[in-house]
Each structure stands twice: as structure tokens, then as C-alpha cells.
Fold these 4 entries.
Entry 1:
Amino acid sequence: MSEIGRLRVGQGYDVHRLVEGRRLILGGVHIPSELGLLGHSDADALLHAITDAILGACAMGDIGTHFSDTDPQFEGADSGVLLKNVIEKARRKGFTLINIDSTLICQSPKLAPHMAAMHSSLSSLCGLPLDAVNIKAKTNEKLGYLGRKEAIEAQAVVLMVKGE
Ligand SMILES: Nc1ccn([C@@H]2O[C@H](COP(=O)(O)O)[C@@H](O)[C@H]2O)c(=O)n1
Ligand SMILES: C[C@@]1(CO)OP(=O)(O)OP(=O)(O)OC[C@H]1O
């Protein structure tokens, strides 16, 4: 089969509510903030969106079917561990990750000062070179629940190749 016939694209999305009393973790990095994301795991919306994009590219379902949000095993889970587990499951089915692009929609805090750390963390978690990984940040121009700082949303697209 041609190289093009072996390419698979995947898309992922996640949103978590911002609340008091939780640490804000994005891309595997702790970001100092008065509010953190609520979830069963560490609620790392960026890693969840990327995990879902990988599962999508491989036609392997979604994050909740692999790691149930009612399973005590995943309470407070490090989403980096879940992401690495999915990359390994995909590898066993013959899929290799090529690149990731992603967007965080986050009115506050400002993510630019943390971008290099998130970029490096994501590259390391995914076993990809830095030039195959991208993270973008957007405010929501103060519109809606994202603009009111009630939540952070993440979107991701990945490209994968199947076979040798
Ligand atoms: N939480 C955020 C949001 C955005 N940025 C950076 O600001 C730029 C402009 O954002 P707009 O939403 O006004 O288009 C954006 O391109 C990011 O570089 C940020 O650092 N943290
Ligand atoms: C990751 C899981 C599992 O701990 O829990 P949450 O942190 O609530 O995250 P969500 O984005 O709802 O996705 C799937 C869950 O099963």
C-alpha cells in the first residue's frame, strides 16, 4: 500500500470545569493558578484531547472506554500515564504517531510563560521530536463559559501511520 493509504488522521476534544482547590495540570505540567481543573483523573484536558485524537486515528474508541471515570483505579490518575498507555496500545496494533497539533482555549491564566515546559513535556510523553509537536493557546475573547473562566477546553489533531 502507498504511504498515503497508510496515513490516519485523528481529532480530539475535551473540556473540564475550573474550580477552587484543584491543581491546574496541562500537558503534564503544573501551572500555578488559583483555580484547577475538576475531573476523576488529574483532569489534564490537553492530554485527554490528544489521547482521544490518537484513539480516533486508530479507530480504537475513546478515552472513557479505555479508562472509566467510575473506576477507582483512575481516581487522581496522571493523564501522562494514560496517554503513554494508549500510544503503546496503538503501537501494538501497528500505528506510529507522526505529529500532533493542539489548541488550548483558556481565558486565564496566561499560558505563554508555560508553553516551553508543556511543549517539552508533550514531546517527551509522546516520544516525538519537538518539531513534531505544537500547542497553541487562545483566550475566548471573554465570551461564554470559557470566557468567564469557568472551564478550559482543548482540541487536538494527530497524524499516524499504520504498518512499516
Ligand atoms: N490563556 C492564554 C491565551 C492566549 N495566550 C496567547 O495570547 C495570544 C492571543 O490570544 P487571543 O485569544 O487574544 O487571540 C495567543 O496567540 C497566545 O499566544 C496565552 O498565552 N494564554
Ligand atoms: C480520564 C478519565 C478517567 O479517569 O476521567 P476524567 O479525569 O474525568 O476525564 P474525562 O475527560 O472526563 O475522560 C475520561 C475519564 O474516563
Note: The chain has one domain: 4-162.
Entry 2:
Amino acid sequence: MAPNNAHTALWPAPHASGAVDATVHVPGSKSVTNRALVLAALASEPGWLRRPLRSRDTLLMAAALRAMGVEIEETVSSSSSAAGGPDGAGEAWRVLPTGLQGPATVDVGNAGTVMRFLPPVAALADGPIRFDGDPRSYERPLNGVIDALRVLGARIDDDGRGALPLTVHGSGALDGGRVEIDASSSSQFVSALLLSGPRFNQGVEVRHTGSTLPSLPHIRMTVDMLRAVGAQVDTPESGGEPNVWRVTPGALLGRDLTIEPDLSNAQPFLAAALVTGGRVIVPDWPARTTQPGDQLREIFTEMGGTCELTEYGLEFTGSGAVHGIDVDLGEVGELTPGIAAVAALADSPSTLRGVAHLRLHETDRLAALTKEINELGGDVTETADGLHIRPRPLHGGVFHTYDDHRMATAGAIIGLAVKDVQIENVATTAKTLPDFPDLWTGMLGN
Ligand SMILES: O=C(O)C1=C[C@@H](OP(=O)(O)O)[C@@H](O)[C@H](O)C1
Ligand SMILES: C=C(OP(=O)(O)O)C(=O)O
């Protein structure tokens, strides 16, 4: 496949000839890897990331931190506890934090974690840090981070739209303090300010003022990972005020962290078990996690499967029947494309609610899912905050992906049950799961 044809290239989505029965080693979590990189870069001593995800989003994060002076060494781990899966396990990144400095240029690609988590880090650097990215990154909301950083003492040049491109003129330190933000368009605004908060002179108090707040598990992930490196964080859940988070200033420890598998990227494989009435085992599924993908155990059980979590991992089994679901996905928005794909193959209608903010994700996911499923013969309508999906017999055709990794994996799920589905630009899965096509055909025994 010539690289300049990658966007228009069509990948024949494999059709399942029977029930799948496979063990799938799912690479590391994007959200955990990128938080771990940021926290390691802000720490006062070296740290380790073992089995990090290596995908476009995490390599962009690593490259951006390196551009600001952080050393990230590729190492082969000697720790037997980190050895295991066949996906490069045992390899690690050793992060050596240094004085952050500009001038530097950061390419955010279309990574929400990079475009939101790094401007606060840049405010702590000494020198100008320029941020740019894919065309879509100019459209994704960043105003919550930009406005808040200005209130906290940063100097930022942008074009006044509250979005990329922009330059943060770091002065080596930031006052910090109290700030109000409306994070209804992205939880990443809150996570971004909290992650760098311990390094602000006064720490940070973030008060969310909007009416809704998506992706709460991702904010819990931020808080958990901050606490694990020694930060003191007060949260609504620890007895604080609703919608207020406080981070006390202080040094961060270096951590030796083995990254969990990405449970949102496990979704298409579990969906394969569900829609084919088969069985998929995902090794190393954590017993306790803040990843939103853990909610798939409940959601896909309601849609017709059963699961068992053992010390080895998660075993998920389809019953042969796939049911519709009425569910609020506000906490787990990134699971919506995969759930919509399964819902289009179900024996009853579904209503997916609480995900209006998906219109500002990698693409407008509500519009994209509606159009692409309907073009295969489906009956999906957009609502103010989600989708109504009435299953109908589907036919083959091209499933467009709009540079959205989760559109590509959603199309692949449909292709298991519907012959002659072709996924346009399956290579877009490289954002978080470069191995997707191989893992998918491997799961099917091809
Ligand atoms: O903090 C994170 O790692 C993420 C938070 C969520 O963002 P939104 O709150 O913008 O949906 C999620 O959708 C994204 O995939 C990853
Ligand atoms: C919304 C997503 O990504 P991002 O981190 O770019 O917001 C996603 O991965 O589904």
C-alpha cells in the first residue's frame, strides 16, 4: 500500500465464518501511557514505563517531551515481572526529567491528550513552545485549557479562537491558584490542569462550572496516578465540594509503572465474541482500574454476553444473541462507536445517550456513525445527545472512517457479520492501536 494512498485505500473487513475463539494480547492503554509520560517528565527523579503503548498518540507525546528537553530512553527491561505478552513486553521507557525548556515545537497530531495535557507543562518550561497539529486539531476545543492557564499566570499567543495553533511562552514557573472552567466539552481540560498542578507555585484549584462533565473515570485516572507519585489531591469523592479538585504544590516521585492493556481497544475483540457467539480472552485485564473500558463487562453482558474475570485476564463469551441497550455513555464516551456497531447488529433497538460531546472528538462521531451505518442499509438517527439505532439487515459497502481510529474498528465489527464491508483507511487505527489489522486477522485465525 503506497503511503500516499493510505487514506483512500480500502481494507476488506474480514467476515467471520463462525464463532471466534481467541486469546488477544491488547497493547497498553493510551490514556495511562500519556499520563505516565507527563508525570514522569514532571518528577524530580527518573521513572520507568514498562510495556508502554507505542502508537501515534503516545509517540507524539514522547516526541513533544523530548523536544522540551526530557530524556526518554528505550530500554529492554531486565525485570521478569514486566515480561509476558508477545507485544513487545519487557521493553520499557526510562524517563529522565530535566529542566523543561524552549524554544520547541510540539506536533499534537489529533491527540486530545497531547493538545490538552502539554500546554500546562509548556507553561513550566523556560522559553517559547509552539503547538500545532492535524487540521482537525484546530477544531477541537482547547479554550478551557488556554483561558485557565492565562488566569493562572501563563502568557499564550493564539489566534483568539480558543484553539490550536498557539505558542505558550514559558517562564520556567507558573503561579497557579484557583480557576473556574467549563469542561463540558472535554474532561481533558480538568485532567490537564491537575496533572501539572503539583508543579505550580501555589498548586491548583479547578472548579468545573458547566452543566455536564463527561468521562469522569478519566478524571479519576488522573487523580489516582497523581496520588501514586506522591501528589496530594482533594476531590469531590474524597469529601470535597462537588466539581472542585485541589492539588497541593510538591515534588513528584519517579515511578516504576507497568502499563495496563487498553480496555477501550479491547472493545472490538470483545464485540467479536458477542456478535459471533464466540469467546475471546484478554490476558492481564486489571482487577481494579479507572479505565472506562472496564464498563464493557457490564455493557456487553447486558447486550447478550457473559464474562469471567480471573487472575489470568477476562474471558468474554457471546451467547449467539445480541440485544439492544438503552444506556447513558457520558462516562465512557470513547466506547460509543463500538457499542453503536454492535447495536446495529442487535435483535432490538438501542438508545445511546449522554454523548453530545462526541461531535468534537476525532471527527463528529454521531454524524459519522449515523451516515456510515445508514449507508450499509441501517436505520440510525442522531438525537441531541446521542443515537437511536433500529437494527435492520445490512449490506456490504464502503465504511468511511474520517481519520478516526474508533470508526475503523466499529466498521470492522460490522464486517464480521455483514459480507463485503470495506474499511477506508484502516491505517488510521495507528492513533492508538497500530497492530489492529494483524490482531484482527489473527483473532479470526487467518
Ligand atoms: O483523558 C483521557 O485520556 C481521555 C478522556 C476522554 O476525553 P473527553 O472527555 O474529551 O471525551 C476520552 O474520550 C479520551 O479518549 C481519552
Ligand atoms: C476521543 C479519543 O481520543 P483523544 O484522546 O484524542 O480525545 C478517543 O481515543 O476515543
Note: The two ends are 20 Å apart (CA to CA).
Entry 3:
Amino acid sequence: MLREPIVTIQNLDHYFGEGGLRKQILFDINLEIYSGEVIILMGQSGSGKTTLLTLIGGLRSPQTGSLQVLRNELYGAKEKQLVKIRRNIGYIFQAHNLLPFLTACQNVQMALELHKKFSYQKAQAISKAMLEAVGLEHKVNYYPNDLSGGQKQRVAIARALVNHPQLVLADEPTAALDSKSGRDVVELMQHLAKEQGCTILMVTHDNRILDIADRILHMEDGHIVDQEVSI
Ligand SMILES: Nc1ncnc2c1ncn2[C@@H]1O[C@H](COP(=O)(O)OP(=O)(O)OP(=O)(O)O)[C@@H](O)[C@H]1O
């Protein structure tokens, strides 16, 4: 069976700054990511991992080359198109970015309501089910400040996956967690992603979770220098 890439990157460079301060950050990135893959992106601080992740996520615009995500070309795309593509991507960041004045359930529900396809009651039921899937059925009405770091990150995972996105981008999702919670959180992401058939691209410095990846990409000074495929 021919696998179709859901991300195709060709000759992508990226620069920050203007005039004399202009600095090249990414150099001729070429990459294909396939449906259902779990990919880990590693590399030293400043090597360009987050820049690449935010480009793929439509959070900044490509300046050169070609970047296709979920069959859309992002190079030259208008803000409106980028917003539409972002709705099909789940984001998980190091800081969970939960809204402190909303309960766990309301935080998840908010992501669903952006799609406006469900009634309030239906959205609430789906959000509760998602929190149950991440093992937080007893915490649905808790506020983020009353949850542990690992629990907050689980809520963030529930929020990222509740819309069944085809692509999940995670930037150091375990950085704020102890090793046991970190491991639990990525195993949960991997399990839910395989269940939903979505692709995960995760930036991490955490050597303890490398075994969950199908492929590991190494970045150095803005270049992808090496790829390892897990057996
Ligand atoms: N908005 C920006 N303006 C100017 N320079 C930036 C900007 N964002 C990132 N950079 C620079 O681009 C380079 C790559 O940053 P990036 O955050 O992509 O690296 P990273 O590999 O994710 O690093 P880390 O592991 O520390 O998060 C760094 O030198 C950084 O200082």
C-alpha cells in the first residue's frame, strides 16, 4: 500500500530578523511525514526545532520552498487558510496553556466549540469522555490550579485530541514533569494517537521516551542531519 505523506517539506529555509540582523535559522529542510507516524525531533538548544514545528503548525509563514500540510500549501497561504488548517492540528506545549478560570472539562470543551458542530450538551459529553480516556474522570470539574503537573498535561492532551486531529504537534510535553509522569503522558499520547490514527511530531530532550518513536530526527544548526528508524 502506498503511504501518503501528510506533511511534505521541500527546500525550506527560514530567517529571523531584518537587515544586518537577519539570521538564517533553517537550511534547506526536506522532509516527509506519513499518516500514523510518531516522530521525535531532537537537537541542541537553538538548533531550530521549535521554529520548524511552528512552521508545520501554520503558526508562522514559510518564507521559501514548499511546505504542504494536510494537502494544503502553506507557502503563500493567506491568514484565513492558515486558521482553517490549524483547526485540524492538535497542539501540546511544555506549559500546558490551560485557562485557569475554566474547569478541566470546560478547557477541553472550548477546543470542541471552536468547531461549532455540536450542541453544548453534546460537546460537554464528548469532553467528559475524552477526560475519561486520559484517566481524569474524577477531575472533570477541577480547575487547573488544583491539578498536578501531570494531570494538567493530561487535560492538555485531551484538549489537543478531542477534535480527532490528523496531526498532533507537541513541543517538549514532558519538560515540566517528573520522569514517571512524563513517561505516562507520552505513552498516553502514543496510545490515543494510534487509536485515532493520527500522526505525532514531538520535540523533546527527554532520552527516556525515545522508544515510543517510529522515527527520530536529529537537528543541528538548522539542518536535519540524521534520521533513525525504530525497528
Ligand atoms: N522570534 C524570533 N526572533 C528572532 N530569533 C529567533 C526567534 N525565535 C527563535 N529565534 C532564534 O532561532 C534559533 C532557533 O530557535 P528555536 O526555538 O527554533 O530552537 P530550538 O531548537 O527549539 O531550541 P530549544 O531547544 O532551546 O527550544 C535560536 O537561535 C533562536 O534564538
Note: The chain has one domain: 35-61+87-229.
Entry 4:
Amino acid sequence: MSETTTPTTGSTGGALADPAERRRLMSTVTPEPGAAKADPILKVDKITRQFGGITAVDVEHLEVQRGVITALIGPNGAGKTTFFNLITGFDKPTSAGHGAHWEFDGRALNRTSASSVARSGMVRTFQLTKSLSRMTVMENMMLGAQGQAGESLAKALFRPFWAGEEKQIEEKALELLARFKLHEKRADFAGSLSGGQRKLLEMARALMSDPKMIMLDEPMAGVNPALTQSLLGHIQSLRDEGMTVLFVEHDMHVVRHISDWVVVMAEGRVVAEGAADTVMSNPAVIDAYLGAHHDTDLGDDDLLDDATMERLEQEVAAEETEREEGKA
Ligand SMILES: Nc1ncnc2c1ncn2[C@@H]1O[C@H](COP(=O)(O)OP(=O)(O)OP(=O)(O)O)[C@@H](O)[C@H]1O
């Protein structure tokens, strides 16, 4: 287990803390859907997901550049959350076995479970579910290390970190809580935190496993202006330390402010890509947003429904049996 909160840096990590260097790097990318990147950490091919007659996702090709902040934007129902669910193993593409392929940091992930995806270094944040709200802030960070509810999910997503000693786990949790200014709240129930503090906790919790890429689904939703700057600062710091950030966001001010690259989805497809300051004037983007309503938000609350939890638990049990058999 790593004993430090410093994220794993990629080959371009560190140097990309310099805005001029990021601009130079991204200026080499052709601003068009599916554009090749200089050093992609994530490559996705032919992912489709249908729900009945609706095609929620139909992504032909997408690359995410290592070490920068990429925003995934699009009107309600564009398929952003479904796309997150698919590449993190929480949902299966309709095109599975028919050309769907995605790899993270050079490793194919299309046949792996959500837990394996997390172990590969691609970690997403989760909204506080009921059971996580009833745990303290510290317990959330330790995630089931003391046999709490939600343990299976924790095991599924944080196994690399679980391999360590409890003392080290605790030190790391405290270090992260201090970084995110939640130290004082460590004994409070997570459910008592404000919207912004919850977002900070979600981020801190995800960092317990030292991800190479962090995926944030609407990190600014429900955050009051006082904490917005702090959250934005944290996201930028992660990037400056070498982490790759992929986030879904509706707030265009936030998108313009922190994104090095913007990917636009509409009706399941990637319809535009480009630097934040130019992509919003792209006719395809304007078309995608015209008439779109931004007041309904499916969010990822449904992500941890009973059926999903059950499937994750089965996956974890199967992987544990496999590991035990491997040891024997
Ligand atoms: N479990 C599901 N069953 C049926 N349809 C679904 C399901 N999940 C998503 N959809 C549909 O897939 C489409 C894409 O939804 P998705 O939530 O991925 O969009 P989104 O871009 O994340 O939207 P938002 O910005 O509102 O969160 C929508 O038409 C939605 O109704």
C-alpha cells in the first residue's frame, strides 16, 4: 500500500502544473469528436448502451489525455452518467462482445468488474447513500474497515488500500481529512455535513486508493458559493500533482474555469471536443444545448440500487473465492 497521499503521476505528471505547458499540449489535438491525444490514459471504442428503444450511449471513439482536467458536458439525458457507469463497470454495454473495448493506462477493462476497474486506478466518487450517511466521516474514509454497513461496496472499490495495515489506513485518512478541511468533522455523521462538505468527503474517500484518474459526477451540484472555490482549488491541485481528472458538470462557469479540454455529448454521441474557450462557440455544441432543459437531473443516486449492490457483492465474493483458491 502506498503511504502517501501523493497521487501516482503519469509520464506527463508534474510538468502539466504549468498552464502554458497544458495549453501547448492540448493545442496539438485536433478539436473534433474522437480526436487522438498525445498521451491518452483512457481509450474507449464502440460503446453503446440501449434501454429499450432508447440509445443512451453510442460512443465510437474517445480518448482522455493523461494529466489534465477534461470536462464531459451535454444536455440532460445526453448519456454522460450512463457513460461513466459503463466505463467503471457499473453497467454493461449493449455492444459488449460486439466491438466494445476500453482500456485504462494500457490495460483492457471491458471484461472486468467495477472492483477491478477501481484497482486499475480509475476511481469515481459516490454520492452519500443512506448507509454511508449513517457512518461517521472517519468511518466513511475507512469504509468498512471496522465491519460497517456498506462493507461489500467498500471492498469492491478500495481493495488496494485494504491490503495495508489499519494504522497506516487511519493515518492516510486523517491526512486526507486535514487536506480537505474535514478533520474537525471526523467524528460527525456524514449525513450531517453540508452539501459542499459531502462533495469534499466524496473526493477524499476516492483518494484513499491513490487513483491515477478521478471521475467526478457533478462535483459542484448543491455546493454553496463559499465552498465552490475550495472545491475547484482541490480539483486543480490534484491535476497539478499529476492526476488525471474527468468530470461531468452542468455549470458552464465551472467548466470554463477549470477544464483543459471539453468533450460534448448529445443523444449518446460525442458531438464536439475542444479547449474550453472555443468549444462553446462550436455550432454542434450550440445545437446540442438549444432547447435543452437543465432542471432535471438523474444524478447517480440510482447507481447503488439494491440490484447493483447485489451484483457488486456477488462479484466481490467471486473474486475473493478466486483469490483464496489462488493462495491454496
Ligand atoms: N436505468 C435506465 N433505464 C432506462 N433508461 C435509462 C436508464 N438510465 C438512463 N436512461 C436513459 O438514458 C438516457 C441517458 O441518461 P443519462 O442519465 O446517462 O444522461 P445524462 O447526460 O447523465 O443526463 P443528466 O445530465 O440529466 O444527468 C436518458 O434518456 C435516460 O432516460
Note: DSSP finds 13 helices and ten strands in the chain.
